[in-house]
Amino acid sequence: MRPLNPSAWNLFKPLSLGALALAACGPGAAEDDAGTTTTQGNDTTTSYTTTYSTFTTYSTLTTYSTYTTYSDYSDNWDDYYDPCNYCAPDEMCKDGECYVPDCEDSLDCRDGLACIDSICTQVPQALACGTWATLEIAIPALDDVLDMQFVDVDNDGAQELVMLTLAGVSVLDDDLSLTDSAWVEPGQFTQMIAMRVDEDEFVDLAFTEPESGTLRTMLGNGNGTFGNEFTEVLEAITGGFGLDLDLNGQDELVGLINGMPASIEGVGEAGVVVSLTPTEAHQHVHHGDNDGDGEQDLLLAGLASDMLAQSASWVLQQGGSWQPSGPAVGLNLDQPQQWGAFDLDGDGLDDAFSAAPSLGVVVMQSWSGGKLAAATVPETELAWILGAEFDGTNGEEVLLGTPVPRLVQRLNSDPLGCHYPLEGFPAGGERAVAGDFDGDGIDEVAVLVGGVVHLRVSDS
Questions:
Q1: What's the pLDDT tens digit per position in 69-89?
Q2: Torsion angle of alpha carbons 347, 353, 357, 358, nearest 10°?
Q3: Which of 43, 46, 62, 282 fits a disulfide with 300 by CB distance 3.0 to 4.6 angstroms?
Q4: Of 347, 421, 346, which Cα lies nearest the Cα of 131?
């Protein structure tokens, strides 16, 4: 509600009754005397002398103070406005008094406010800390790439860029050479997962098609090629990744089946679906070490029943069993969020992170030790999010697939304190992945734009 401004009401100071009577005669009101009577013979003549008095009527506006300071209503205008209308955006009002409420999570706050340090407050904009230069690595042209991942296929310490195409798999080495492995049996897959299927030392690949539930594996040969195709049809799995849950040296394929966390054991043989933990159906699943025990935990986010659900929760892997952790409750946003598990504060633990466009900005949220940090960047669209070690320091940075791609870096104790436009970075894109392509400890980033891969490295 717009604060009342009495000075805009064009109020006039009331005139006295006498002034009103005089004013009724016009600006030059006349004042007559009683007259003088003269008698001469039978004739009587009365003479009058008229004296004119000039009056000036002043229309004086009564000036009132204009209140622009929140909670300032000291002039006792209670009859004219509700003091609660003058509370600051991060204040609430009770019995005519403005106050900053305490909170346990953002559900205790009004829409658009975040519970930060136990106080409901507006989400700050991350500080613009300059620009971040990147360089393009020219790679051989390869069209119709469907998915990609950085994988150390030959155990040399550097991660090659493995790309899924319509024809099969292509591997880009750090000498920029391509090695192709074509399908033996034609197939159409949209997701590729690096995992250890057999007992040798080399990484293998699994391919899924969520619409059909078809699962195919190819075994790594250690030289950038893959073979020994095996195809089976199981239940459709989404968001898949490989984890060695039983510590036997072979990975299970973990993901969501009908929105529920599950694993496929025996991938590459006769796979068996195993439910991991009872929970509600979710839209997203990610993994990371959230409790510091060296085991990979699951981050479940976005309720399948509510596209705008603002909470996520960890399910901790503890000695072969799963222990649900408390939910991370965030802001109420008007767009679905993208989620990830990143170590943004450099403490060695992976924390939940989300981002979504809302009300003309992109809102970011991160939870470390149950504590919420939130910030915005001045963008209106978001295609992807990515965690990467992009500057060689402890902890990861977040890359945002906004119209002007940005890198978000911690500033002091704020994991979302700084943002940098990425110079030369391709705009848009469907997907991005990060990995140490040349083995120097700093990640390179590959962005997929219209089926074409752009490979970039930090130059800052």
A1: 544 545 555 545 788 888 877
A2: -90
A3: 282
A4: 421
